[in-house]
Amino acid sequence: MERVAIIGASMTQFGQREGEWVMDLLAEAGEECLEDAGVEAADVEHLYVSNMASGEFEGQTGVPNALAHDLQAMPAYTQRVDQTSSSGGAGIFAAWQSVASGASDVTLLVGGEKMTHRSTGEATDVIASLTHPVEYKTGVTLPSFAGLTARHYLERFDAPRESLAKVAVKNHKNGLDNPKAQFQKEIDEETALESPIIADPLRLYDFCPITDGSAALLLCSEDVAQEYTDDYVVISGIDGATDTHVVHEREDPTVMGGVVESGKGAYEMSGLEPEDIDVAELHDMFTILEFLQMEGLGFAEQGEAWKLVEEGYTERDTGELPVNTSGGLKSKGHPLGASGVAQAVEIYEQLMGEAGPRQVDANVGLACNVGGFGNCVITTIMEAAQ
Amino acid sequence: MTMEAYRYEDGSISYPGHPRGPGGGEPVETIDLSEYTAEVITWTTSTATPPGVREPNTLAIVEFDVEGESVRAIGQATTDEIETGDEVEPVYVDELREPGAGIREPESQDWDGYRFEPV
């Protein structure tokens, strides 16, 4: 099996990109990534596009082929990767497989979504359409699942409501130093705790925004990487896993089986353990998810992640394990198909020493991308090439 | 209308039913959960609801005990005066949300069902 390297990365401005549509966003990130890697479009053999719902949001389907044309990457093989909110992570897994298997020497992955032209209700409904009919007819939304789970977590583990607000405060603070984040706005705990209720006990600042944006990665075999550069990152572990489609059927509402299983697979492939991880991007679509992933990935015991957050363990500049140095989905934004790719872009920049004011001391990073409410999860471990 | 759960070969029960149960076994019978009461495991009141959904929308995950076998379900609550641990009973409603107002094809599923009312 080929060792897979990442030699280029890009991310567009995330936020409300008025007048720009999914094809514009994908092409912008794709071009910038090729330029960053110094790779010609004609040398791309496989092109993967992570996107959940361009048909539903915009009425534009067939985006992979359209992007191949816009980039002049023909005759590259292309396909769309949809795994709802984890489409980006699933795209990394597909791109990794294409190179590891030897099917492609040079693979471009571009993730993107255009959402903000829809009302919050419409966008929420497109996302909630992933639910089972018995769930959908109740009007449940992904934010409602977060409210249900957060209440259970707080009550069962006697965790203070403030601990969730601390996640929002931290990630907003990190986002201040990310010029491409949707929000560069510091908030305090009081603001988070007094913001409008969205899904009781969770409030506005417990949720990520609706976002337009795109991000891209250039993957190739390590042999090919060395033809281009001495400085690159390798994917040393990656795995994906599923949990039940129907959320209430899970034995323990505070355990995301997909996080646990994909994490196990990624650790096993890399030969690394949770204590070896220097920096992590976790899928904080809702603040409670940061706790569930810290626990599922072995950074904290079950029911204890909130204590680590309260102790400052996950702070960027002073913590043992900086979490969401990019600002996370919370502050950076969550253009569905782009988010998992953008998580890996942040880890790539951290490992390459290119994260500017967000830079932490890191040789090993982890990204966890969650689809649905933990329905599908991809965990990726990346290391700076030695 | 029933609130139909499946019992599988190994005795486990799921709501909704699936072609295979959690242990991999085939379904052997259906159970109407609307004949039982349940305990509220957790709940939320959602204030940002999609098209065709009541606002606010109080939802609960509840647990039924069917002859010693537990099975959970999600549903709307009849009131926002609900607490974890409350005992509730399913109450029939002919339209839980407006068919066709959201993205889901109206003919692809049913829209009636049960809300949970504190006993």
TrEMBL record, chain A:
Q: Which domain of life is it from?
A: Archaea
Q: Which residues form the Thiolase N-terminal domain?
A: 4-223
All copies of the Thiolase C-terminal domain together span: 241-383
Say yes or no: keyword tRNA processing present.
no
| InterPro entries on file | Thiolase (IPR002155), Thiolase-like (IPR016039), Thiolase_C_2 (IPR055140), Thiolase_N (IPR020616)
**What terms describe the molecular function in GO for this protein?**
acyltransferase activity, transferring groups other than amino-acyl groups
| Pfam families, per the entry | Thiolase_C_1, Thiolase_N
Q: Name one GO biological process term.
A: isoprenoid biosynthetic process
- Kindly list the residue ranges recorded as spanning the membrane: none
* PANTHER family hit by this protein: ACETYL-COA C-ACETYLTRANSFERASE (PTHR42870), NON-SPECIFIC LIPID-TRANSFER PROTEIN-LIKE 2 (PTHR42870:SF1)
Protein's name according to its UniProt entry: Propanoyl-CoA C-acyltransferase
List the taxonomic lineage. Archaea, Methanobacteriati, Methanobacteriota, Stenosarchaea group, Halobacteria
UniProtKB/TrEMBL annotation, chain B:
Superkingdom of this protein's organism: Archaea
Q: Which InterPro entries match?
A: NA-bd_OB-fold
- What is this protein's name? DUF35 domain-containing protein
State the residue spans of region: Disordered: 1-27, 98-119
List where Basic and acidic residues composition bias occurs: 1-10
